[in-house]
Design a protein that fits this description.
Blueprint (H helix, E strand, L loop, with lengths): L1 H20 L13 E11 L4 E13 L4 E12 L2 E16 L3 E14 L5 E15 L2 E10 L5 E11 L4 E10 L2 E11 L1
Antiparallel strand pairs: 1-2, 1-10, 2-3, 3-4, 4-5, 5-6, 6-7, 7-8, 8-9, 9-10
Organism: Marinagarivorans cellulosilyticus
Protein name: Outer membrane protein beta-barrel domain-containing protein
Keywords: Signal
């Protein structure tokens, strides 16, 4: 009987030690809205028979936990086309699920083509952004822009976070008169 009791106590102690050694469950985390990034951007504009590519810098700043500001500056050029664009918007986000946000944005975009006249237009949109699994963030967004004759664009993308501060990003966009692809990096602050 002593041997049986000793075996039960020893097994219980080993099981307790193994349980205590397991890492604690990580707190559910939502994506950060404080970041700066740079990306290579390639775009096909069907209305202008134009393929262009170049660099974009973008960023976001969390104003108060629900309201955020974001912006981008890009310079692209290609076969008989090219442009510089500036975008700024303000958004509102709300928690959805354990690791996501639903959000809406409103702002403006200014595009100055290398040849021809530029245009400035309003942009409104919304989407969902969250972690698919720990370390892998995904998003889906739909925007309507009044630039030129107006365009509805759907974008899907993601980020692979190497750690809490740095990630690799990729996204694609589809609109009635354009297609785009981008890859880059992002730093959270």
């Amino acid at each position: 009987m002593k041997k049986l009791m000793s075996a039960i106590v020893a097994t219980s102690l080993l099981a307790s030690a193994a349980y205590a050694a397991e890492p604690k469950q990580t707190k559910k985390v939502r994506p950060t809205y404080n970041y700066a990034g740079i990306k290579y951007f390639a775009q096909r504009l069907t209305d202008y028979d134009c393929s262009q590519d170049g660099l974009f810098v973008d960023g976001s700043f969390d104003i108060n936990g629900q309201v955020f500001a974001r912006g981008s500056l890009g310079d692209v050029n290609g076969d008989s086309c090219g442009s510089t664009s500036l975008s700024a918007s303000v958004g509102y986000r709300s928690a959805w699920g354990e690791a996501s946000h639903l959000y809406g944005v409103a702002g403006f975009t200014d595009v100055s083509p290398d040849s021809g006249s530029g245009d400035t237009g309003l942009v409104i949109g919304g989407g969902i952004r969250g972690y698919i699994v720990p370390g892998i963030e995904g998003y889906f967004e739909v925007d309507y822009s009044t630039l030129n004759d107006g365009d509805l664009t759907a974008k899907v993308g993601g980020a692979y976070w190497f750690n809490g501060n740095f990630s690799a990003t990729a996204d694609i966009g589809f609109g009635s008169d354009q297609r785009s692809f981008a890859i880059g990096g992002r730093m959270a602050f």
